[in-house]
C-alpha cells in the first residue's frame, strides 16, 4: 500500500525559507509546491524550490560515509567507523599541535540557525575557538552595518512602505518572496528606486533606476542625505530624540554636492532631486535597504551604514513602512562563548577584524587559508565542514585548493560529493531538510516555523554529527539531548512554547504581532530605545572610533573603492561577481539536470561597446585573468542599458568557469573583513 | 471560469514561470523552448509582458483546427490540444492573435498551455505575484482598486497642498 | 432569435457535412436547442477533414484521425443525418429532392456542398491511373498506390499538389512536378517566395518543371503513363495526380433561382438572393476583408467562419462576416510555408523583407496604401506566430506605426495594452 502524505514545511534550497507542501510517498518526496497558507511566500516558489524533488532523489546522493584510501579513491565505510576515525584524528591533531589546530566550517547549504549554533558549541566544547562560515562573505557585513546603526538586524517593511530604495539587491532572484511584498507596497502606491550597476530584474519595474559605478553607493547616499538636510526633509523629532551624531553627519554631508557626487558615482544631480522629492512625499515610510552588492567592496560596511541612515533621517525607523526593528522569539542559544570564550587561543582573524569577531564571533575564512599554508601564527591542520563548498565559493579558489590540500584532515558533510568534498579525507552523507527537525524564525513577521523528519533515510543529522564527535572527544556533557527534537524543546523552553505549539501552524506561527514605535514606549519606560551602546540610532559610532583602527570611522565616511585607488592598465576591466541566477544557489544545484540544461555554464556579462572593441560576440569563448588567476568562459553581450561600460559581471558557482579563481582574498573591508568580490581588475582575451 | 491573469506592473522577468512550465511540459528540462509561457522583455520600453494562452471564450484556434484536435476541458475550461489528433498543420498557430501556441519540433505537433489541470505551475512559481490563476472578475476588481487608490492618493495630495495654502 | 410558436419546430437543413456545414450546426446548437437540424451528405461515412488527407498520405497522421465527428456527435446534438445526394432544389416549395430517399422540407437551408477538383483539358488525362487529391475517395485510391508504385507525376503546383508531392517523396516515390505557370504556388506565394520554395523542392530531390505544357498523356501497355511535354523528352511515370484547382458543387441548383457565378453569391450574412437560403464554404462566393463582394477562398478556416455566420443568421442572430482573409500554412520540404492576404507582387505597392537571421527564413510583409495587407513565410514554425499576430491587424486594416523589423514587439505591447 502506498503511504502518501502532504507535509507543510520549509524549503531550504536557499536561505529565504519559503513555505512548501512536500508530497511524500513511501518515504520519498514526489512533488513540491508552494504552501498557499504560508505567511511569507503565499504559495509561490522559485524554480529551485520545486526542483528539490529531483535533487533530493538524485542518483548521485550519498548515503554511506566515504573514506579516501591511499590511492586517493573513496571507499564506503560504516558511519560508526568514520566517526571513530574522525574523532580520533581530530584529537591526535589537537594533541600533536594545539587545541586550536582544528576548526569547524558551516556552509549555507544544509541547515540554518541550529546548525550554526551546534557547530559553534561543538568546536568550543572541544577547546578550539575556530568557527568559520560562509557568513564572512555574505550577510555578516550587512549584519554588522545595520547592527552598528540600530543594534539589531532590521527588516524593511515593504508591504507598507511608501518608498522602497533597493541598493545592490535583486529580490526576485535572491529573496524571492520579498518581491511579492515589494509589489504589494507598490500596488498601494510605493515608489520603487533601484540603485545598481547592473540593470537587474527588479530594476525593470523601478520608478527610478540609477546605474551607479561599483562601490560608490555611499557617495550617492551622502548626496541624498545632504539634499534631505538642505531641503529640511528630515524628521527632526526623531533625530533629536533617538539618534546620536547628527551634527557630525550634517557636517560631513556638506561636501557631497551634486557635482562631487556626479564625479564619484556618475549619478546626476537631477536624479538625486527626484529621489529626495519622493522621500519628501513618502517619509516617514521609507525603506532603504542594501543587499550583497554593497558588501563586496572595501568600503562595504560604511556604504551600508550610510544607506540605512536615509531611513533614520526620514524618521522611518520602527515605523510603519520603514525599517522594522523586530523582536526575536527569545529562544535559548546553544553557544558557549560565556563559558568558554577561548580568546587566548586566538580565533583566526579576531585580531585583525575585531568588530567582526566581537559582534558575530566569526573567524575569518580568507585568513584561514593563509594560516593553513603559512602555519603562522599557529598551525591549523583539521577542518570539519558541513554543507560548505569553499572551493567554488571562497575568494581566490586557487589558494583555497592549495590550503585545503595541506590539511591533515578534511571532513565534509554534504548530500553530494562536491568540489570541496573531492578534496576531503572523509565525506559524511547529510540528512536533507526533509529529514530533520529544525526551528526557523522570520523576524519581519515575528513568526516561527518548525520542520520535521518527514523522510527517514537513516542519515545522520547535524546534531548527531556534533554530538557523536563530542561524545568521542570527551565533551559529551555539552550534548546531552537524545536528538534534535529534544534540542528544540530545550531551545524553546524560555519562550513558553513547545515544538507541538509551533506545529499547530506550520505555515507561520506568529509569536507576536509587530509593534511599531516600540522605541517610544521603551523611552517612556526608561529603557534603552535601541540596543546600541548609546541606546540610540547611531549615526556616529563611538565604538568604532575606540577601536583605533584605520578605516573604522565614527561617521560612515565615503572611501573610494579599491579599484579606483589603483588604476590598472594591465587589467582594464572591472569585474563584479556574485550576482545570483534563480536556478542556482551559490555553488549548488548544477547537478539538477533540468536546471543545468537551461543554464549550463558561466558567462561574462559585458557592455555591447566593450564587446565590440574586443571583437567578441555573444557566446564566444574568452579568457579572463586577474592578478591571482585566470579561466576560460563565455561572453554574454548585454543590452547597453543592462551593464555599465568597462564593468563586467560573472556569476559564481560554476565548476568549470569558477570565477573565484580571479577574485582577490587580500583586498578587504577593514571592518567586516569582506573580500572586494565586486572590485576585481581583469583583462579579457578572445579565444580564436 | 478561472484563467491566468497577468499584471505587467509586477512582472520583473525573472522567468521562474518559464522554467517551471518548461519542466512541467518536458519533464526533463527547464529550457525556454519547452515553455508555453513566454515573458517578453522590451527593454527600451521598460515593458515586460508575460504571455500565455488566454483560453479565449471564442477560441479561434479551437474552431479552426481542421483535425478537431483542440477542445475545451470540461473541468478547467482550458483550451487543450490532443497531440494524438494534431496533424501538425500549424493552422492554430496562424489563428492565434497572441502567438501563444508553440510547435513541438520533435513530435511535430502544436502545443500550448493547458492550465496544468487547474494548478498552473507558472502561477505557483511567479515570485512577484504578477501571474494569478483567478476569475477575470477578481483581476478587474483589483485593477479597479488600484485606480481608486491612485485617485485617492491624488486627492490626498491635493488636500495637503491646500492646507498649506490655508496656513498662509 | 427565432420565436417559436407552441409546439412548432423550425426545420434547419444543411447540405454538406464538412467544415462549413458542421460549423453552422455547432453554432446553431450553441444558442438553440429546439430547432430541428438535418445534415445531408453525399459523401459516405463519417465527416472528415480534407486538410488532413495529405498528412495521411505522408503517414504523419493515422487514417482514423481524419474523422472529425463520430456518430454519437449527431445524436448528442440532435442532428438528423441523411446520407444522400441532393439532385434538385425547389426554393418556392422549400423542398429538396434527393437521389434515394424522400424529398426533404426545410424552413431554412444552408448550402455547404463544397467543391470538387477539376481536370484540365489534356488529351488522355482521364480514366484509371489519373487521380486527384481532394476527397477521402481520392485518398482511398491513392493510399495503395503509394505503397505499390515507384513514380508519380503531379500536374500542378498549388498548395495541395505540393503537399501530395511531398507526401510521395516522403514515402520514397520518385516525384515529378509539372507546372504550367512560370513558378510554383502562384496562389500562395509571391514571386521570390516561389523561387525560395522551388529551391527547397529541388533540394529535397524532386524533379520540378515550370512553364511546362503537358500536351498529351499516353497510357502504356504496362499500365504506366507517358507524359508528352512540350519541347522536352516525354516523362514516364506509374501514375498521375492532377491538381488544377477546384470548382464549387452547384450542379443541383442549376434549375433554381439562386444566383451564382462560379459559386453561389452570398452577402455578409451568408444569404443568397433567395430568402431562407444560405450558402457557406467552398460553394459560396462571399465578402473578403479587402472589400471584394464575392470571392471564393476554398479554404478550411474561411469555411468554418462562413458556416458560423450562416448558422447564427439562420436562427435569427444578426451576424455579419468581416470578410474572408485567405491563409495557408503547412510544413513540407523541411520548411514551414505560410501566407496570408495579398502578397502578389502586382497587387501591392510596398514590401518589407526581414533579414534572413531575424526569423531564420524568408518573411515578407506586403503593404498597400501604407497598410499591411499580407505576408509570406518560408522558414520556421516560430515565424507563423507573426502571421497570427498580423491577422487581426490586416482584418481590421490597422495602421502600424513602427519600424517593420520591430513589428512583433509592437503588436505584443499594443495587444496587451488594449486587453488590460
Could you describe the 3D structure shown?
- Chain A has 25 helices and 27 strands.
- By secondary structure, chain A is α/β, with parallel strands linked by helices.
- Chain A has four domains: 4-56, N-terminal domain of TfIIb, CATH 2.20.25; 66-139 and 354-510, Rossmann fold (3-Layer(aba) Sandwich); 155-324, Dimethylsulfoxide Reductase, domain 2 (3-Layer(aba) Sandwich); 562-686, Beta Barrel (Barwin-like endoglucanases).
- Chain A starts with a strand and ends with a strand.
- Chain B is globular.
- Helix content of chain C is 26%, strand content 26%.
- Chain C has a five-stranded parallel sheet. A five-stranded parallel sheet of chain C has the order 9-16-10-11-12, covered by helices on one side. Chain C has a five-stranded antiparallel sheet with strand order 21-22-25-24-23, with helices on both faces.
- In chain C, a hairpin with a 2-residue loop joins strand 21 and strand 22 (335-341).
- The longest helix of chain C is centred in the last third of the chain and has 15 residues, at 300-314.
- The two termini of chain C are 32 Å apart.
- The interface between A and B is large, with 40 and 38 residues.
Descriptive tags:
B: 168 residues, alpha+beta, Alpha-Beta Plaits, two-stranded antiparallel ribbon, globular, disordered C terminus, C: alpha/beta, FAD/NAD(P)-binding domain, Enolase-like, domain 1, 5-stranded parallel beta sheet
List the helices and strands and how they pair.
The complex is a heterotrimer of chains A (688), B (168) and C (420).
Chain A lengths: L3 E7 L8 E7 L2 E7 L12 H10 L9 E3 L5 E3 L2 H18 L5 E5 L6 H13 L5 E3 L6 H11 L4 E2 L6 E5 L3 H4 L1 H12 L3 E6 L11 E4 L5 H14 L5 H7 E2 L1 H8 L4 H8 L3 H14 L3 E5 L1 H4 L4 H14 L9 E2 L29 H7 L4 H10 L7 E5 L3 H4 L3 H10 L2 E6 L11 E4 L9 E4 L4 E4 L11 H12 L10 H9 L6 H5 L5 E2 L7 H7 L12 E2 L3 H6 L14 H4 L7 E5 L15 H6 L4 E4 L1 H7 L6 E5 L4 E8 L9 E4 L29 E7 L2
Parallel strand pairs in A: 6-7, 6-15, 9-10, 9-13, 10-11, 12-21, 15-16, 16-17, 22-26, 23-25
Antiparallel strand pairs in A: 1-2, 2-3, 4-5, 4-17, 8-14, 18-19, 19-20, 22-27, 23-26, 24-25, 24-27
Chain B lengths: L1 E5 L9 H11 L11 E5 L4 E5 L8 H5 L5 E3 L6 E3 L9 H5 L6 E3 L4 E3 L9 H4 L6 E5 H32 L1
Antiparallel strand pairs in B: 1-8, 2-3, 4-5, 6-7
Chain C lengths: L10 E5 L3 H13 L4 E6 L11 H5 L13 H6 L2 E5 L2 E5 L4 E4 L5 E2 L2 E4 L3 E3 L12 E2 L4 H13 L2 E5 L3 H12 L3 E5 L12 H13 L3 E3 L4 E6 L5 E5 L5 E3 L1 E4 L3 E3 L15 E2 L11 E3 L4 E2 L14 H15 L12 E6 L2 E7 L8 E4 L2 H4 L2 E7 L2 E9 L2 H15 L10 H13 L1
Parallel strand pairs in C: 1-2, 1-7, 2-3, 7-19, 9-16, 10-11, 10-16, 11-12, 18-20
Antiparallel strand pairs in C: 4-5, 5-6, 8-17, 13-14, 14-15, 21-22, 22-25, 23-24, 24-25
Amino acid at each position: 500500500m502506498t503511504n502518501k502524505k502532504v507535509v507543510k514545511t520549509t524549503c531550504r534550497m536557499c536561505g529565504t525559507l519559503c513555505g512548501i507542501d512536500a508530497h511524500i510517498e513511501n518515504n520519498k518526496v514526489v512533488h513540491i509546491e508552494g504552501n498557499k497558507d504560508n505567511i511569507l511566500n503565499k504559495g509561490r516558489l522559485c524554480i529551485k524550490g520545486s526542483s528539490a524533488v529531483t535533487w533530493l532523489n538524485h542518483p548521485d546522493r550519498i548515503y554511506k560515509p566515504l573514506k579516501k584510501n591511499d590511492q586517493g579513491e573513496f571507499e564506503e565505510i560504516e558511519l560508526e567507523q568514520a566517526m571513530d576515525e574522525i574523532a580520533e584524528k581530530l584529537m591526535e591533531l589537537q594533541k600533536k599541535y594545539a587545541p586550536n589546530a582544528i576548526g569547524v566550517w558551516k556552509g549555507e547549504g544544509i541547515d540554518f540557525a541550529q546548525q550554526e549554533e551546534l557547530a559553534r558549541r561543538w568546536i568550543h566544547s572541544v577547546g578550539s575557538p575556530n568557527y568559520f562560515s560562509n557568513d564572512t562573505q555574505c550577510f555578516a557585513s550587512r549584519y554588522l552595518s545595520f547592527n552598528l546603526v540600530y543594534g539589531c538586524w532590521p527588516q524593511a517593511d515593504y508591504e507598507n512602505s511608501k518608498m522602497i530604495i533597493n541598493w545592490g539587491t535583486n529580490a526576485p532572484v535572491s529573496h524571492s518572496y520579498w518581491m511579492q511584498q515589494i509589489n504589494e507596497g507598490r500596488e498601494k502606491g510605493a515608489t520603487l528606486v533601484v540603485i545598481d550597476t547592473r540593470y537587474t530584474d527588479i530594476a525593470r519595474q523601478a520608478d527610478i533606476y540609477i546605474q551607479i559605478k561599483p562601490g560608490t553607493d555611499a557617495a550617492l547616499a551622502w548626496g541624498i542625505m545632504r539634499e534631505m538636510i538642505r531641503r529640511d526633509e528630515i524628521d527632526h523629532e526623531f533625530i533629536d530624540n533617538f539618534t546620536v551624531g547628527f551634527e557630525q553627519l550634517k557636517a560631513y554631508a556638506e561636501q557631497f554636492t551634486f557635482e562631487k557626487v556626479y564625479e564619484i558615482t556618475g549619478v546626476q544631480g537631477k536624479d538625486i532631486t527626484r529621489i529626495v522629492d519622493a522621500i519628501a512625499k513618502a517619509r516617514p515610510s521609507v525603506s532603504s535597504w542594501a543587499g550583497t552588492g554593497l558588501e563586496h567592496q572595501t568600503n562595504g560596511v560604511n556604504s551600508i551604514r550610510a544607506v540605512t541612515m536615509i531611513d533614520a533621517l526620514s524618521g522611518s525607523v520602527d515605523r510603519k513602512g520603514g525599517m522594522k526593528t523586530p523582536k526575536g522569539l527569545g529562544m535559548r542559544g546553544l553557544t558557549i562563548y560565556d563559558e568558554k570564550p577561548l580568546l587566548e587561543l586566538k580565533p583566526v582573524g579576531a585580531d585583525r577584524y575585531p568588530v567582526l569577531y566581537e559582534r558575530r564571533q566569526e573567524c575569518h575564512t580568507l585568513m584561514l587559508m593563509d594560516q593553513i599554508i603559512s602555519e603562522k601564527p599557529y598551525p591549523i591542520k583539521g577542518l570539519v565542514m558541513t554543507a560548505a563548498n569553499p572551493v567554488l565559493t571562497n575568494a581566490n579558489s586557487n589558494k583555497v585548493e592549495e590550503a585545503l590540500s595541506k590539511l591533515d584532515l578534511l571532513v565534509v558533510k554534504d548530500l553530494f560529493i562536491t568540489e570541496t568534498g573531492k578534496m576531503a579525507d572523509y565525506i559524511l552523507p547529510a540528512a536533507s531538510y526533509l529529514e530533520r527537525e529544525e526551528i526557523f524564525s522570520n523576524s519581519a513577521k515575528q513568526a516561527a516555523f518548525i520542520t520535521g523528519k518527514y523522510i527517514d533515510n537513516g542519515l545522520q543529522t547535524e546534531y548527531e554529527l556534533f554530538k557523536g564527535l563530542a561524545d568521542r572527544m570527551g565533551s559529551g556533557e555539552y550534548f546531552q539531548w537524545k536528538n534534535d527534537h529534544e534540542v528544540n524543546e530545550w531551545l524553546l523552553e524560555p519562550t513558553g512554547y513547545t515544538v507541538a505549539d509551533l506545529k499547530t501552524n506550520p505555515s507561520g506561527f506568529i509569536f507576536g504581532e509587530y509593534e511599531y514605535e516600540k522605541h517610544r514606549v521603551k523611552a517612556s519606560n526608561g529603557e534603552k530605545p535601541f540596543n546600541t551602546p548609546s541606546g540610540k540610532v547611531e549615526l556616529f559610532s563611538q565604538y568604532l572610533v575606540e577601536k583605533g583602527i584605520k578605516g573604522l570611522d565614527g561617521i560612515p565616511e565615503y572611501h573610494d573603492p579599491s579599484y579606483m585607488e589603483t588604476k590598472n592598465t594591465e587589467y582594464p576591466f572591472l569585474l563584479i561577481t556574485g550576482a545570483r541566477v534563480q536556478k542556482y544557489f551559490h555553488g549548488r544545484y548544477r547537478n539538477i539536470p533540468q536546471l543545468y540544461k537551461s543554464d549550463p555554464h558561466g558567462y561574462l556579462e559585458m557592455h555591447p561597446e566593450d564587446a565590440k572593441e574586443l571583437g567578441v560576440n555573444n557566446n564566444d569563448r574568452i579568457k579572463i585573468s586577474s592578478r591571482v588567476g585566470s579561466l576560460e568562459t563565455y561572453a554574454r553581450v548585454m543590452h547597453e542599458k543592462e551593464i555599465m561600460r568597462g564593468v563586467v559581471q560573472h556569476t559564481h558557482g560554476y565548476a568549470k568557469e569558477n570565477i573565484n579563481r580571479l577574485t582577490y582574498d587580500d583586498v578587504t573591508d577593514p571592518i567586516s573583513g569582506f573580500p572586494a568580490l565586486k572590485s576585481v581588475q581583469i583583462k579579457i582575451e578572445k579565444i580564436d | 471560469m478561472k484563467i491566468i491573469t497577468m499584471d505587467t506592473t509586477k512582472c520583473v522577468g525573472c522567468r521562474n514561470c518559464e522554467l517551471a512550465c518548461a519542466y512541467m511540459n518536458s519533464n526533463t528540462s527547464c529550457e525556454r523552448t519547452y515553455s508555453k509561457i513566454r515573458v517578453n522583455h522590451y527593454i527600451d520600453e521598460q515593458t515586460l509582458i508575460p504571455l500565455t494562452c488566454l483560453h479565449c471564450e471564442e477560441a479561434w484556434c479551437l474552431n479552426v483546427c481542421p483535425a478537431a484536435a483542440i477542445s475545451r476541458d470540461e473541468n478547467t475550461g482550458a483550451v487543450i490540444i490532443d497531440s494524438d489528433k494534431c496533424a501538425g498543420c500549424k493552422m492554430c498557430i496562424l489563428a492565434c492573435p497572441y502567438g501563444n501556441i508553440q510547435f513541438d519540433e520533435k513530435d511535430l505537433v502544436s502545443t500550448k498551455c493547458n492550465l496544468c489541470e487547474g494548478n498552473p505551475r507558472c502561477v505557483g512559481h511567479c515570485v512577484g505575484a504578477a501571474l494569478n490563476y483567478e476569475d477575470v472578475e477578481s483581476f478587474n476588481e483589483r485593477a479597479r482598486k488600484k485606480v481608486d487608490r491612485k485617485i485617492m492618493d491624488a486627492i490626498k495630495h491635493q488636500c495637503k497642498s491646500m492646507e498649506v495654502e490655508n496656513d498662509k | 432569435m427565432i420565436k417559436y410558436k407552441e409546439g412548432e419546430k423550425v426545420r434547419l437543413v444543411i447540405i454538406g457535412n464538412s467544415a462549413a456545414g458542421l460549423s453552422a450546426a455547432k453554432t446553431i446548437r450553441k444558442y438553440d436547442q429546439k430547432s430541428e437540424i438535418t445534415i445531408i451528405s453525399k459523401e459516405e461515412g463519417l465527416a472528415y477533414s480534407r486538410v488532413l488527407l495529405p498528412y495521411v498520405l505522408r503517414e504523419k497522421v493515422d487514417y482514423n484521425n481524419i474523422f472529425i465527428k463520430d456518430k454519437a456527435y449527431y445524436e448528442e446534438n440532435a442532428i438528423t443525418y441523411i446520407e444522400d445526394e441532393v439532385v434538385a432544389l425547389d426554393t418556392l416549395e422549400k423542398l429538396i429532392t434527393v437521389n434515394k430517399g424522400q424529398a426533404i422540407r426545410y424552413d431554412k437551408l444552408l448550402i455547404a456542398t463544397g467543391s470538387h477538383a477539376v481536370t484540365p483539358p489534356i488529351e488522355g488525362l482521364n480514366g484509371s491511373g489519373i487521380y486527384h487529391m481532394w476527397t477521402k475517395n481520392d485518398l482511398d485510391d491513392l493510399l495503395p498506390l503509394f505503397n505499390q508504385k515507384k513514380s508519380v507525376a503531379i500536374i500542378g503546383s498549388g498548395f495541395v499538389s505540393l503537399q501530395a508531392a511531398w507526401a510521395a517523396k516522403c514515402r520514397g516515390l520518385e516525384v515529378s512536378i509539372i507546372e504550367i505557370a512560370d513558378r510554383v504556388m502562384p496562389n500562395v506565394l509571391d514571386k521570390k517566395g516561389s523561387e525560395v520554395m522551388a529551391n527547397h523542392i529541388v533540394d529535397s530531390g524532386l524533379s520540378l518543371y515550370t512553364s511546362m505544357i503537358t500536351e498529351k498523356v499516353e497510357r502504356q501497355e504496362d499500365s504506366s503513363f507517358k507524359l508528352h511535354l512540350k519541347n522536352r523528352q516525354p516523362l514516364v511515370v506509374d501514375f498521375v495526380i492532377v491538381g488544377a484547382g477546384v470548382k464549387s458543387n452547384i450542379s443541383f441548383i442549376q434549375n433554381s433561382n439562386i444566383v451564382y457565378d462560379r459559386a453561389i453569391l452570398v452577402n455578409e450574412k451568408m444569404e443568397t438572393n433567395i430568402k431562407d437560403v444560405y450558402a457557406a464554404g467552398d460553394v459560396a462566393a462571399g465578402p473578403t476583408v479587402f472589400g471584394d463582394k464575392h470571392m471564393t477562398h476554398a479554404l478550411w478556416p474561411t469555411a468554418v467562419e462562413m458556416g458560423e455566420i450562416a448558422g447564427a443568421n439562420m436562427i435569427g442572430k444578426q451576424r455579419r462576416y468581416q470578410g474572408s482573409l485567405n491563409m495557408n500554412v503547412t510544413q513540407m520540404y523541411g520548411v514551414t510555408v505560410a501566407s496570408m492576404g495579398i502578397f502578389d507582387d502586382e497587387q501591392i505597392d510596398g514590401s518589407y523583407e526581414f533579414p534572413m537571421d531575424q526569423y531564420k527564413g524568408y518573411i515578407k510583409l506586403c503593404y498597400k496604401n501604407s497598410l499591411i495587407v499580407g505576408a509570406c513565410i518560408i522558414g520556421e514554425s516560430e515565424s507563423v506566430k507573426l502571421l497570427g499576430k498580423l491577422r487581426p491587424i490586416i482584418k481590421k486594416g490597422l495602421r502600424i506605426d513602427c519600424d517593420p523589423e520591430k513589428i512583433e514587439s509592437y503588436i505584443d505591447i499594443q495587444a496587451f495594452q488594449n486587453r488590460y
